[in-house]
Amino acid sequence: MEVIQTLFQEIIGFLGISQLIEVCKTGNYKVLLTLNGIFSVISPLVPFLLLLEICRAIFYKKFKIEDYKMPFLIFVANRFISRFLSIAMVAFCIGLLEKYALFNTSLKWYWFIYGYVIWEFSHFIYHYFGHKVRLFWCLHSTHHAPQTMNLSVTYAHFFLEAPYADVIRTSICILMGVNPPLLFIIMFIDGTWGSFIHVGENLIKDGRLGFLNKIILTPSHHRVHHAKNPLYMDTNFCNLLNIWDKVFGTFQHEKREMQIEYGISREMNPNSFLDVYFGELYGLWKDMRHAPGIKNKLLYVVMPPGWSHTGDHKTAKVVKAAFLKEAQQAQQPAAIKQTADQLI
């Protein structure tokens, strides 16, 4: 009986409906007009869309168990490993750094805009280093391992990534004056949108969302981020506002003529939990073991993925530069021919 009760609690927790059930039990529907009440209504949105996505795939006979199996296994594993770790890190950073804030903000609309811009900057910093520092990539790569895009991917994370991300994001926001209540509101909104942008083509074929594609980061932009196509590598690090991607030159629109290839560039078994979860850590350990000298061993930890002590680098920057050079060379003969045709 206890096992069934625990399973039931896990299910309603995953669906995000525990607060709504409590409201129905008490009959106090006025709670829905409060901020927490609004959050309780929004929380089930992404799980509902995930179930809709799965049901739609089953109805159209496009459902593949391997598209959802690994994110589900990772979600279950993380529930056992890190249930309270991320929350604890956020509380720790607030308690440690709040007294050093540059100034104090309040729950005003203009401070909300300021707070969101700062939050996006902190998210950009965490996400950028997650791709540019090998050790952090080992934590982040689990999220990029799935070879298809659907809402279950939002639950596929290495258990240490959330605490690492929240330390960076919370620390920057608190030091820049974003007070905790404002920060939690922004976290909720950004977390909900950050989950939604993983929606698959099965549910929303064109992830550009019309005119929104020119204003915010849409599922289309995030599909680009999850791609291993050379042109798309290490782009679109922001979550909702694309301001910092544009500032730092990492913004990239999805090209209609380019088919997205999801996953990570190394050879791996996408159906192996151990390879998806620990594969990058094992690869880092092997590179460090074979590297000569302590300096090279440490460089493997802090340099970008693909860096090699031999000089034969295969980083995203190198791969993208080679791709662009090859594309440019391929275009030159066509341009010359077009010019010649015009002269004739």
What does this structure look like?
The chain is an all-alpha fold. The protein has a domain of 232 residues. Helix 6 runs parallel beside helix 9 and helix 7 crosses helix 8.
Total helices: the number is 15
Strand fraction band? Answer: under 5%
The arrangement of helices and strands along the chain is HHHHHHHHHHHHHHH
Number of strands: 0
Helix fraction bin = 55-70%
The unreliable regions are: none
Helix-strand makeup class: mainly alpha
* Radius of gyration, in angstroms, nearest whole number: 22 Å
End-to-end distance, in Å? Answer: 85 Å
> Per the principal axes of the C-alpha atoms, what is the gross shape?
globular
Profile the largest sheet.
none
Q: State mean pLDDT (0 to 100 scale).
A: 89
Task: Produce the secondary structure layout.
Elements: H1 2-15, H2 18-26, H3 35-42, H4 45-59, H5 65-81, H6 85-97, H7 109-132, H8 134-144, H9 161-175, H10 180-196, H11 219-225, H12 243-247, H13 273-290, H14 293-302, H15 316-343
Helix pairs in contact: 6-9, 7-8, 7-9, 7-10, 8-13, 13-14
